[in-house]
């Protein structure tokens, strides 16, 4: 009876306590294991202080989340924090007045924003050309190479040495197919992100003018000779049946986990599914073209970042700043990195993970960071930006599909992608 | 015939109010919004808005990709409407012949209708995905190079098949009802005159089914135009290239993926005009000319 009374008293006290807290909404697009990470981070943050209540809300896929945010903003109901994927970055940056730069939020919240504490490759991508951080990098990933060690063994390849260059990948893939170790040698997710945007950065060739769009309106240059050579090789392999196309986004992962293909290039964020499949896999760096000068340069980040919407109360912004400050803490970043396969955002978290035996226990997990950190980025490798990147990728995918189906050669496909893409950019900027 | 007259002026409006409210909120209001949006050029967040008059329409109609998606839509709709109706009619006629277990057979036939388009799309994808599809493997063994991810004809075939399969049940129901409405005496008279089954079907059954068929033609066309979005989204996403990008899919893609609101709104206004025209056509001509038995 007494216990019940206490319970009752507790229940009555609860609303009063909740009322004093400022609620902060966070719309995100994380599923599966990554959604659990979001929940844990939010719960831990709420437990760590008593002024703010962070409420994460799942809003669907990346594009769906972005659309929900846009629709909510138009209706005057925008969330406080929204997770937007890399390709949506240009859209958000163009929406001055709808967003509030993260650097500003942190400063006003009384936190010192020290850029040097963050991984430069990641923070640079989410900053203005002047260097002000606009959004908070939450989950960053980088494309890497995965290979099936059993298939390598069967094909007579060394299962401990992943191919380093594209030429080596092609040779290994042909050997896999010819030896009958698997019906398909090589497959890849995201031809746009991996074979176009990261291909450019990693081989230090230009994706577009104006520092790939980071310094102004871009004009695509992906019909350059290195791209043509690379895509023609890919088209030839597709014709031989050595390369199998899986789809526009991450569908090809299944071709790899099912054992159909021996080699895969995919985001480091896709590691979870590959581990789950229980296969005997190995990880290598993203291959580069050995004829490219200075390759390998560095890869660019994919994934998503957190944007703060404009027009909220000071109290809300203080809470958001407190959350971002919490999120930057070494233990939190280390947890995020080790749990999800995404990259840590701060140098301290990277050093801390290095200091533990995590990388010895999980070989290959450091690869995406090394790729991104290996060299100081050039104007070709800071990332790519366009006001309509989703549309540009669509156009590229359409042309690549026609090329892989044998309807056109690589030179034509890339020339069309550039012409159509530049027309679309002009339209987007003019409108 | 005497007309029913309400004594009150207010009562009829009151009785109509729920229906009117629904129509206003769910049709007129969004339609008006689409019209407004189609005259504007706007960024995704609606921060900068310029009035451009009919420029969006001019742009859309002169876009070769739009004309391509129009062509895709025509091919897709004709194929879906034809196969969905032809197969349903065949099955309905066969079902009529069954003596035992008619109800069981009919129930089975109606099931696919309860499947949501997106789920139907996923089912077909699981069967025919080139890498993990259960039926893709036997196809390959037969020497067919099955790859709808890159082969536009195969991709079109796949979405047509999925969309057709889902619509057959609906058509089947209507054809069964239509067949039951045909007077027995006519069929018996034909039988006495020694007409073959095929002859009876084409000269008596088929013409008498005309009202049902015309109704279904309009319904199926509208279905193929609009309700197949989920299937296309799940199976091909409009690809390969733009081989299965129908008008509705393009509205979605331009508006919600590429965030070009003006173009997308202009396209939806054009679609609205097409549907209004189709419906008007049905009521004006077909309803009048069709012979109702």
UniProtKB/TrEMBL annotation, chain A:
Role summary: Part of the ABC transporter complex UgpBAEC involved in sn-glycerol-3-phosphate (G3P) import. Binds G3P.
Cytoplasm keyword on record: no
Stretch forming the signal peptide: 1-20
InterPro entries linked: Bact_solute-bd_prot1, SBP
UniProt organism field: Paracoccus kondratievae
Main location: periplasm
Keyword Coiled coil: no
Subunit structure: The complex is composed of two ATP-binding proteins (UgpC), two transmembrane proteins (UgpA and UgpE) and a solute-binding protein (UgpB).
GO annotations of cellular component type: periplasmic space
UniProt record similarity statement: Belongs to the bacterial solute-binding protein 1 family.
Top-level taxonomic group: Bacteria
Protein's name according to its UniProt entry: sn-glycerol-3-phosphate-binding periplasmic protein UgpB
Protein localization: Periplasm
Keywords: Signal, Transport
From TrEMBL, chain B:
A matching Pfam family: BPD_transp_1
GO cellular component: plasma membrane
Keywords noted in UniProt: Cell inner membrane, Cell membrane, Membrane, Transmembrane, Transmembrane helix, Transport
Residue ranges occupied by any ABC transmembrane type-1 domain in the UniProt entry: 70-282
Function: Part of the ABC transporter complex UgpBAEC involved in sn-glycerol-3-phosphate (G3P) import. Probably responsible for the translocation of the substrate across the membrane.
Main location: membrane
Family designation: Belongs to the binding-protein-dependent transport system permease family.
Gene: ugpA
Self-association state and partner proteins as the record states: The complex is composed of two ATP-binding proteins (UgpC), two transmembrane proteins (UgpA and UgpE) and a solute-binding protein (UgpB).
GO biological process, alphabetically ordered: transmembrane transport
Stored PANTHER family: BLL4140 PROTEIN, SN-GLYCEROL-3-PHOSPHATE TRANSPORT SYSTEM PERMEASE PROTEIN UGPA
Membrane topology label: Multi-pass membrane protein
Location(s), subcellular: Cell inner membrane; Cell membrane
Segments crossing the lipid bilayer: 12-31, 72-93, 105-127, 155-179, 200-226, 265-286
Name under which the protein is recorded: sn-glycerol-3-phosphate transport system permease protein UgpA
């Amino acid at each position: 009876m007494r216990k019940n009374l206490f319970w009752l008293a507790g229940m009555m006290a609860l609303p009063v306590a909740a009322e004093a807290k400022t609620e902060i909404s966070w719309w995100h697009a994380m599923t599966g294991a990554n959604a659990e990470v979001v929940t844990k981070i939010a719960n831990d943050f709420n437990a760590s202080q008593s002024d703010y209540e962070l409420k994460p809300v799942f809003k669907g896929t990346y594009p769906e989340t972005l659309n929900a945010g846009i629709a909510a903003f138009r209706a005057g109901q925008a969330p406080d924090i929204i997770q937007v994927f890399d390709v949506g970055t240009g859209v958000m940056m163009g929406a001055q007045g709808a967003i509030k730069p993260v650097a500003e939020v942190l400063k006003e919240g009384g936190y010192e924003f020290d850029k040097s504490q963050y991984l430069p490759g990641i923070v640079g991508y989410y900053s203005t050309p002047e260097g002000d951080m606009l959004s908070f990098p939450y989950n960053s990933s980088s494309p890497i190479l995965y290979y099936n060690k059993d298939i390598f063994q069967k094909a007579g390849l060394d299962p401990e040495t992943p191919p380093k260059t594209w030429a080596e990948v092609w040779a290994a893939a042909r050997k896999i197919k010819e030896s009958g170790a698997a019906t398909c040698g090589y497959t890849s997710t995201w031809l746009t992100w991996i074979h176009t945007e990261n291909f450019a950065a990693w081989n230090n060739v230009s994706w577009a003018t104006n520092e790939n769009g980071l310094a102004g309106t871009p004009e695509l240059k992906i019909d350059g000779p290195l791209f043509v050579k690379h895509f023609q090789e890919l088209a030839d392999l597709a014709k031989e049946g050595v390369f199998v196309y899986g789809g526009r986004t991450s569908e090809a992962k299944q071709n790899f986990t099912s054992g159909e293909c021996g080699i895969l290039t995919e985001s480091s964020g896709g590691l979870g599914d590959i581990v789950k499949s229980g296969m005997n896999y190995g990880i290598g760096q993203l291959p580069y073209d050995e004829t490219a000068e200075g390759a390998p340069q560095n890869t660019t980040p994919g994934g998503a970042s957190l944007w703060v919407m404009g027009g909220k109360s000071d109290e809300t912004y203080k809470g958001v700043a407190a959350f971002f400050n919490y999120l930057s803490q070494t233990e939190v970043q280390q947890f995020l990195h080790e749990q999800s396969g995404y990259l840590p955002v701060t140098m301290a978290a990277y050093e801390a993970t290095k200091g533990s035996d995590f990388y010895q226990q999980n070989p290959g997990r450091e690869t995406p960071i090394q790729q991104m950190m290996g060299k100081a980025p050039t104007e070709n490798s800071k990332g790519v930006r366009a006001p309509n990147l989703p549309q540009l990728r669509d156009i590229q995918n359409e042309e690549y599909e026609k090329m892989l189906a044998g309807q056109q050669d690589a030179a034509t496909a890339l020339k069309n992608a550039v012409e159509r893409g530049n027309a679309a950019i002009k339209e987007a900027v003019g409108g | 015939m005497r007309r029913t007259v309400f004594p009150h002026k207010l009562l009829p409006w009151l009785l109509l109010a729920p229906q009117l409210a629904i129509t206003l909120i769910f049709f007129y209001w969004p339609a008006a919004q689409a019209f407004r949006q189609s005259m504007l050029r706007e960024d995704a967040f609606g921060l900068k808005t310029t009035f451009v008059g009919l420029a969006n329409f001019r742009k859309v109609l002169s876009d070769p990709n739009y004309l391509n998606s129009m062509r895709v839509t025509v091919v897709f709709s004709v194929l879906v409407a034809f196969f969905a109706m032809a197969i349903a009619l065949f099955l309905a006629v066969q079902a009529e012949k069954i003596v035992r277990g008619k109800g069981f057979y009919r129930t089975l036939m109606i099931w696919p209708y309860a499947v949501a388009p997106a789920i139907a799309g996923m089912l077909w994808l699981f069967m025919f995905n080139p890498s993990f599809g259960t039926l893709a493997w036997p196809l390959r063994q037969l020497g067919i190079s099955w790859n709808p991810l890159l082969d536009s004809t195969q991709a079109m075939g796949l979405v047509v098949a999925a969309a057709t399969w889902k619509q057959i049940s609906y058509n089947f129901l209507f054809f069964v009802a239509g067949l039951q409405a045909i007077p027995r005496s006519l069929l018996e008279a034909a039988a006495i005159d020694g007409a073959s089954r095929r002859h009876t079907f084409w000269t008596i059954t088929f013409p008498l089914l005309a009202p049902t068929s015309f109704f279904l033609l309009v319904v199926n066309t509208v279905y193929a135009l609009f309700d197949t979005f989920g299937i296309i989204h799940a199976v091909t996403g409009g690809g390969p290239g733009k081989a299965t990008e129908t008008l509705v899919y393009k509205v979605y893609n331009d508006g919600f993926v590429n965030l070009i609101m003006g173009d997308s709104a202009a396209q939806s206004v054009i679609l609205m005009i097409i549907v209004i025209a189709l419906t008007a056509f049905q009521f004006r001509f077909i309803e009048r000319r069709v012979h109702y038995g």
